[in-house]
Amino acid sequence: MIDVKHLTKTYASTTAVDDLSFRVEPGQVTGFLGPNGAGKSTTMRLILGLATPTSGQALVNGRPYREAPEPMREVGALLDATAVHPGRSAYNHLLALAATHGIGEIRVAEVLAQVGLTPVARKRVGGFSLGMQQRLGIAGALLGDPAVLMFDEPVNGLDPDGVRWIRHLMRGLAAEGRTILLSSHLMSEMALTADHLVIIGRGRLVADTPLSDLTSAYPSLEEAYLQLTGSSVEYR
Amino acid sequence: MTPHTLRAEWIKLRSLRSTWLVLAVSLGSILMAAGLALMANGMYDAAPASRRDAAQLTELEDVVIIVPQLCLGILGVLAAVKDIPASYLAVPRRWPVLAGKTAGIAAIGLIVGQAAMFGSALVTRLVVGDRFHLEPLADRVPLLVVSGLSVVVLGLLGLGLGTLLRSVAACVALLAGVLYVFPIISFNVPGVAGEWGRSVMIGGLPRLIVGADLTNTVYGTRLSASGAAAVLAAYAVVPVLAGVWALRRRDL
Amino acid sequence: MRAEWIKLRSTASTHYAVGTAALVLVLGVAWTLYVDSIWHERGLRSAAAAEEGFLPVVQLAVAVIGVLAATGEYATGLIRQTLTVTPRRSRLLLDKAAVVALTAFAVSAAVLLATASAARLVGDYPMAELDVAQLLAHALAATVLSLAGLGLGVVTRSTAGAVSGVVALLFVVPGIVNLLPTPWSTRIGAFLLPNLVPQAFLPERAGLEPLAAIGLLLLYAAVPLAAAWAVFTRRDV
């Protein structure tokens, strides 16, 4: 479970996240929506301790991520799939991450197979397509078999097969009782994948609601999203 | 630092081609010493016998040490700058990542430094034979050991700077600054400031530490042996600690 | 070419490099004041002028500008977009070289002249006459170094590799040659980059003729650039 409480993050002149509170419950896929620059990625980085909140806090399984004794076994995350060393092979990239938690080579081979990268495991990541990098990032998130998973735009760059694969993966992980937070701009895909939605705009909460409530009140999810965020699509 | 983070950092280091390239170039310093010694031989043999006695050759291990020093510095910079946020997701306390890198770079620097120093010293004497009047190898063992350790210091200096500044260009330029620009400036500054500058240069510290004679050299003698050891250690410790401090506070 | 200028000028690293070079002015004044404070009691007959002492800082800073003009685009993947909008690669490389050269020359000439003038303004100790031609030649050498950095950057596509290459040209090789036995050190030394400008202005130091020295200096830029051209026009990005 992820518990975001009055989270605020200000940079020199802008407020990226503004008094944001929501919960992500286990056993379902929670979609995380908002226009570009609304603060989705910043929120995820705050939850994961990569950035320090100006005020408020984000708890994962009841404590800040940085205090987790074995973080990868609690939370798996895919933030920026392109943030890998291009000269390293997929296998070695995962092996180094696995080693931090004493996770062995067998598990590395398992997740590589799970994301379909086994044939290119020994190839340098620099030659990977964006879709393959996304799969590698997802493999890294799954390494510690965590109960909480966060994915920032995992569908970017995937082919139609890959998009469907992600959808089934997310649904499957949620069905196992895991907590899934998933951000995406593809409304049609989100409508098929998510059970619950958290929508933010300009760093503030716009909606925190079951998917069905939105789809019954509006003609489509896309329509609902555009109307809810309409006032906040403006870059600062 | 746990055995786990240590192993992770080791995997990261060994899985990059740049690491092996840097190591190869570092140990290439031994070949370089051999080549320079051959050149010196040619010159010596061409000279008339009467002038041979006066012919002098700097101990070539002191000449080529710059290569492993720079290489380890660059390796340290790359290890720090090219790391990815995912590393800090796996180890959110962050400092163990740097501790693991420190151990890895120090281990590589220890091996490469000693190998390059003793290798080039040995090769030089084998090639030169009884030409020139080189200091016997046995008399130089303490200096070679300490000079080899300066390679570790450069590696950790690069690691600390890389963590602090996160820019390969800036850090490599700074390494060149420490190894070359600072000495050049120190040579040109008259008076006490220049004397101090020449005393704390990395090139001269090993000699100060082992108590070698520094008359007729460019180096200053303001420091005692233990003072020199402290300064040499500080070149490594201060940047790494600064890196830990920066890593704790900053957003990734 | 305008595009290249905008890219160079809008990059933070360029500002840092220019700032570092400009810091030389401040350091140069400090140096001059310090030497002034001691030269009487020490009876110095002459001491290096500030711009001479800090020359390597300027050289290194503009060399880094050249390297980053190339490797910065590879590191960010911008190179693909650049080549999409400017598919004629020879032209692109030429534009880049022109912009880097102009910037490097302007920055180094301005910093060296300003430092030299400031030093003579605040300093009383005996230092060499202000020789504008020689300072401009030093700026030219710095420009050559930044073009060599650009060439190495294109060839290696690695910031670490290209900066190391420049450092080798400027410091490592001269340092090693300097320690060779005497006839060799001067003979080889005459051909090394840092010694070319002094030879052009102090012919009595033997070695190369002034014109040959300047010609060789330009070769130090031309060879890496030619290598860059050969690689850049053939290689897939």
Automatic annotation (TrEMBL), chain A:
<dbReference type="InterPro" id="IPR027417">
    <property type="entry name" value="P-loop_NTPase"/>
</dbReference>
<protein>
    <submittedName>
        <fullName>ABC-2 type transport system ATP-binding protein</fullName>
    </submittedName>
</protein>
<keyword id="KW-0813">Transport</keyword>
<dbReference type="InterPro" id="IPR017871">
    <property type="entry name" value="ABC_transporter-like_CS"/>
</dbReference>
<dbReference type="InterPro" id="IPR003593">
    <property type="entry name" value="AAA+_ATPase"/>
</dbReference>
<dbReference type="GO" id="GO:0005524">
    <property type="term" value="F:ATP binding"/>
</dbReference>
<feature type="domain" description="ABC transporter">
    <location>
        <begin position="2"/>
        <end position="227"/>
    </location>
</feature>
<dbReference type="GO" id="GO:0016887">
    <property type="term" value="F:ATP hydrolysis activity"/>
</dbReference>
<dbReference type="Pfam" id="PF00005">
    <property type="entry name" value="ABC_tran"/>
</dbReference>
<keyword id="KW-0067">ATP-binding</keyword>
<comment type="similarity">
    <text>Belongs to the ABC transporter superfamily.</text>
</comment>
<dbReference type="InterPro" id="IPR003439">
    <property type="entry name" value="ABC_transporter-like_ATP-bd"/>
</dbReference>
<keyword id="KW-0547">Nucleotide-binding</keyword>
From TrEMBL, chain B:
<feature type="transmembrane region" description="Helical">
    <location>
        <begin position="20"/>
        <end position="43"/>
    </location>
</feature>
<feature type="transmembrane region" description="Helical">
    <location>
        <begin position="102"/>
        <end position="123"/>
    </location>
</feature>
<keyword id="KW-0812">Transmembrane</keyword>
<protein>
    <recommendedName>
        <fullName>ABC transporter permease</fullName>
    </recommendedName>
</protein>
<feature type="transmembrane region" description="Helical">
    <location>
        <begin position="223"/>
        <end position="247"/>
    </location>
</feature>
<keyword id="KW-0472">Membrane</keyword>
<feature type="transmembrane region" description="Helical">
    <location>
        <begin position="63"/>
        <end position="81"/>
    </location>
</feature>
<feature type="transmembrane region" description="Helical">
    <location>
        <begin position="168"/>
        <end position="189"/>
    </location>
</feature>
<keyword id="KW-1133">Transmembrane helix</keyword>
<feature type="transmembrane region" description="Helical">
    <location>
        <begin position="143"/>
        <end position="161"/>
    </location>
</feature>
TrEMBL record, chain C:
<protein>
    <submittedName>
        <fullName>ABC-type transport system involved in multi-copper enzyme maturation permease subunit</fullName>
    </submittedName>
</protein>
<feature type="transmembrane region" description="Helical">
    <location>
        <begin position="54"/>
        <end position="76"/>
    </location>
</feature>
<dbReference type="Pfam" id="PF12730">
    <property type="entry name" value="ABC2_membrane_4"/>
</dbReference>
<keyword id="KW-0812">Transmembrane</keyword>
<feature type="transmembrane region" description="Helical">
    <location>
        <begin position="12"/>
        <end position="34"/>
    </location>
</feature>
<feature type="transmembrane region" description="Helical">
    <location>
        <begin position="135"/>
        <end position="155"/>
    </location>
</feature>
<feature type="transmembrane region" description="Helical">
    <location>
        <begin position="162"/>
        <end position="180"/>
    </location>
</feature>
<keyword id="KW-0472">Membrane</keyword>
<feature type="transmembrane region" description="Helical">
    <location>
        <begin position="211"/>
        <end position="232"/>
    </location>
</feature>
<keyword id="KW-1133">Transmembrane helix</keyword>
<feature type="transmembrane region" description="Helical">
    <location>
        <begin position="97"/>
        <end position="123"/>
    </location>
</feature>
